[in-house]
Amino acid sequence: MSDTSRPLLEVNNIEVIYDHVILVLKGVSLAVPEGGIVALLGANGAGKSTTLKAISGLLRTERGDVTKGSIEFTGKNIRRKDPSEVVRHGIVQVMEGRHVFEHLTVEENLLTGAYTQHDGRAIKRDLEKVYEYFPRLRERRGARAGYVSGGEQQMVAIGRALMAHPKLMLLDEPSMGLAPMLVHEIFEIVSRLNREEGVSVLLAEQNVLIALRFADYAYVMENGRVVLDGDRKTISENEDIKEFYLGLSGVGQRKSYRDVKHYKRRKRWLS
To answer: How many CA atoms does the CB half-sphere of 7 hold within 13 Å?
Structure first.
């Protein structure tokens, strides 16, 4: 990346294996600058979620392991740290699928994100801040989280992460299953959190169009590898991206999934 200062997060050549035999990530490297929004793009199964879990420490709960490479956050090694320790360092992951405690209220869910905090007044201020960013949650604060809409559950998940005072938020497929208007609303709020609270963001997304509208830099993953990276303009204008992920041919006509899937990859992707 163009910034010569040391990145906030630096992942260098990591390899991930599940159950001691299944190689999932093969030499993945990426960086997130302080105050930046970085996107991990790629189809389902490309390795995006595994990359986020390798950073957050959640791989170890799924019988996965980072067997090679390094993961450094603020210059400190966090490879193989327990998830709770990673959170204390300032990294919080918002899982794919809007994981909420369904039997708890919206507000009770948000308060679980403050488990590392001990100052009651500060927690109350943090809760008010979440409600300022997500006014809809204030209206739904007493409702059970399992009964609110999918978009509201995603807001709960992000708000709960914000309660932990993250320096870096890992967002896994935040647009999944949501209507376009809700997706745009949530991304706008994430962008505000980035600008106003200084929260850096590493975003895993299949929705390339929305991700590139907000990300400063992007990495494209395929089959457990990073095959392309660049700033927003570079990625947006790349013909391979248009072909594979946007389904557009060079003349702007939408191609069928079958045509795109069998498109012969350019050799420079394999370097």
So the answer is: 22
